């Protein structure tokens, strides 16, 4: 069933000229990402106005992305969001389990977290987790920005997990305001 849904999405997207596009921007403005060549992008109807749900991938490999508006962090400074996102102590196994259980394909599968880490190679820290759900590996991430939280679950439905592609997708996730937000902490650091 997954293959037929993705095939239909790919056909529809090819018709409008989006299937081969690398950059995808959420119409609600919550996030952007780069889809690898050959991946289709499908945006099922959202269950609520404050979230965007996207499935990007092929019949064998996909990343599901869920972006949720966060009014509590909307007024926070970019530096504060960076510190909070880098703080691994805040991202407990219980939080990861609840976060991954939000995804329809994982909600009934008894998510088990096998490892967690933080990727601070870019300006914005990325919380990472490796998990198991229904006997399959899940490569997951949580990213924060002022006013939005982004959750990612990458899954393999056939063959070897495409971990490099999953990492590419996760690291490409951004926000239209990233350049502006990045200059705010740098300006604050330069001020005596």
Write the layout of secondary structure elements.
Layout: H1 2-16, E1 23-25, E2 32-34, E3 40-42, E4 51-57, E5 61-69, H2 78-86, H3 93-100, E6 112-119, E7 126-133, E8 136-145, E9 148-156, H4 163-172, H5 178-190
Describe this structure in words.
The protein has 192 residues and is of the alpha+beta class. It has helices at residues 2-16, 78-86, 93-100, 163-172, 178-190; strands at residues 23-25, 32-34, 40-42, 51-57, 61-69, 112-119, 126-133, 136-145, 148-156. It has a seven-stranded antiparallel sheet, sandwiched between helices. It is globular, with a radius of gyration of 17 Å.
Please sum up the structure shown.
The protein is of the alpha+beta class and 192 residues long.
Give the key terms.
192 residues; globular; seven-stranded antiparallel beta sheet; disordered N terminus; alpha+beta; 5 helices
Query: How far apart are the first and last residues' alpha carbons, in Å?
Result: 59 Å
List the total number of helices.
Answer: 5
In sequence order, what are the helices and strands, one letter per element? HEEEEEHHEEEEHH
Rg of Cα set: 17 Å
The fraction of residues assigned to DSSP E strands is 25-35%
Approximate helicity band: 25-40%
> For the residues shown, what is the average pLDDT?
85
Determine the structural class based on helices, strands and strand pairing. Answer: alpha+beta
Low-confidence stretches: 1-21
The general outline is globular
Q: How are the strands of the biggest sheet laid out side by side?
A: 3-4-5-9-8-7-6
* Main sheet record: 7 strands, antiparallel
Number of strands: 9
């Amino acid at each position: 069933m997954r293959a037929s849904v993705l095939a239909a999405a790919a056909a529809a997207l090819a018709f409008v000229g989006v299937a081969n596009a690398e950059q995808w921007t959420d119409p609600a403005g919550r996030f952007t990402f780069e889809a690898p060549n050959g991946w289709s992008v499908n945006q099922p109807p959202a269950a609520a106005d404050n979230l965007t749900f996207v499935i990007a991938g092929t019949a064998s490999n996909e990343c599901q992305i869920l972006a949720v508006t966060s009014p509590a962090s909307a007024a926070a400074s970019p530096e504060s969001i960076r510190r909070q996102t880098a703080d691994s102590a805040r991202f407990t196994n219980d939080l990861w389990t609840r976060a991954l259980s939000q995804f329809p394909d994982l909600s009934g599968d008894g998510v088990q977290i096998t490892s967690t880490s933080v990727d601070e190679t870019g300006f914005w820290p990325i919380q990472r987790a490796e998990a198991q759900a229904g006997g399959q590996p899940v490569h997951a991430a949580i990213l924060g920005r002022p006013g939005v939280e982004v959750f990612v679950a990458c899954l393999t439905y056939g063959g070897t997990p495409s971990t490099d592609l999953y990492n590419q997708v996760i690291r490409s996730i951004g926000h239209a305001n990233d350049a502006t937000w990045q200059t705010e902490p740098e300006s604050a650091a330069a001020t005596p």
